[in-house]
Amino acid sequence: MKSALFTRFFILLPWILIVIIMLDVDTRRPVPPLTPRPYFSPYAVGRGRARLPLRRGGPRNQSRPQPQPEPQLPTIYAITPTYSRPVQKAELTRLANTFRQVAQLHWILVEDAAARSELVSRFLARAGLPSTHLHVPTPRRYKRPGLPRATEQRNAGLAWLRQRHQHQRAQPGVLFFADDDNTYSLELFQEMRTTRKVSVWPVGLVGGRRYERPLVENGKVVGWYTGWRADRPFAIDMAGFAVSLQVILSNPKAVFKRRGSQPGMQESDFLKQITTVEELEPKANNCTKVLVWHTRTEKVNLANEPKYHLDTVKIEV
């Protein structure tokens, strides 16, 4: 029995010695330094959607550039007098389609009426525009032919603006008078938005001419190209100027006058209260481009409209 154990021991002994020698040699080899493997985040995506390694550690208080706030776009306030007539909704629809394409515009629609009409109220509700709906009737004595029109409505719009900004700091803004029978180029709104005090530009199809415009030399208005009363202090159409909101608020008594105002002089009577010709700011390439047209819808012929036997369906036109 003992001889068998000794025999097995001497057979295994050389193998045991070989294993011990190999382990001793392996433990004496120099260990290579550990290098950190890059960490790939599934949320870091580069070009070609390849994952980019994110560094671990490192300085945490690195200064990052802060995004600069965008300058506030001045609000354009458009005061539009309107009155009931067969083409009223058509005119307002055309104007609304233009205003929808203008950023930061507030429409002040003023009806010549003792109360707000359902037609205009429904129209504004569906127009999708920031708007204010006002109404004020024109006294009957001022509705005679040849007298200035829309005076009370424009003054109502001015009063609303002043009241709105009475107890708050006025934001940048520009006011202009947008009659509902005019046609506007979108470029005009870009021009008027930079108005510092009072800006002016040409108007097409007005005064019995293809256009009227301020005459400009060296960036200053020096006269007027007009077909009617060139001696007016401001021989300009109501569609041919814009006023800074700050100027309107700084001149609370500046309104359109009834007493003492002659036909065709409303623009001059109003502008004299807030500026001078020398201060006017020419727009539209020094007043050489027409960007607004005094278009008037042809008087509608309703001679065949029946007085009796009307349609069984009432349709708003």
Automatic annotation (TrEMBL):
Cofactor(s) needed by this chain: Mn(2+)
GO cellular component, one term: Golgi membrane
Pfam families, per database record: Glyco_transf_43 (PF03360)
Enzyme class: transferase
Membrane topology (UniProt): Single-pass type II membrane protein
GO MF: galactosylgalactosylxylosylprotein 3-beta-glucuronosyltransferase activity; metal ion binding
Positions contributing to Mn(2+) binding: D181
Active-site residues, record numbering mapped to chain: E267
Chemical reaction(s) catalysed: 3-O-(beta-D-galactosyl-(1->3)-beta-D-galactosyl-(1->4)-beta-D-xylosyl)-L-seryl-[protein] + UDP-alpha-D-glucuronate = 3-O-(beta-D-GlcA-(1->3)-beta-D-Gal-(1->3)-beta-D-Gal-(1->4)-beta-D-Xyl)-L-seryl-[protein] + UDP + H(+)
Localization (cell): Golgi apparatus membrane
Main location: Golgi
Site (Interaction with galactose moiety of substrate glycoprotein): E212, N304
Keyword Manganese: yes
Keywords: Glycoprotein, Golgi apparatus, Manganese, Membrane, Metal-binding, Signal-anchor, Transferase, Transmembrane, Transmembrane helix
Pathway: Protein modification; protein glycosylation
Binding-site positions, UDP-alpha-D-glucuronate: P81, T82, Y83, D112, R149, R154, D179, D180, D181, H294, T295, R296
Transmembrane segments: 6-25
Region (Disordered): 51-74
Gene3D superfamilies assigned to the protein according to its UniProt record, in alphabetical order: Spore Coat Polysaccharide Biosynthesis Protein SpsA, Chain A
Highest taxon listed in the record's lineage: Eukaryota
One of the GO biological process terms: carbohydrate metabolic process
Family: Belongs to the glycosyltransferase 43 family.
PANTHER family: GALACTOSYLGALACTOSYLXYLOSYLPROTEIN 3-BETA-GLUCURONOSYLTRANSFERASE 2 (PTHR10896:SF8), GALACTOSYLGALACTOSYLXYLOSYLPROTEIN 3-BETA-GLUCURONOSYLTRANSFERASE BETA-1,3-GLUCURONYLTRANSFERASE (PTHR10896)
The protein's name in its UniProt record: Galactosylgalactosylxylosylprotein 3-beta-glucuronosyltransferase
Native species: Pan paniscus (Pygmy chimpanzee)
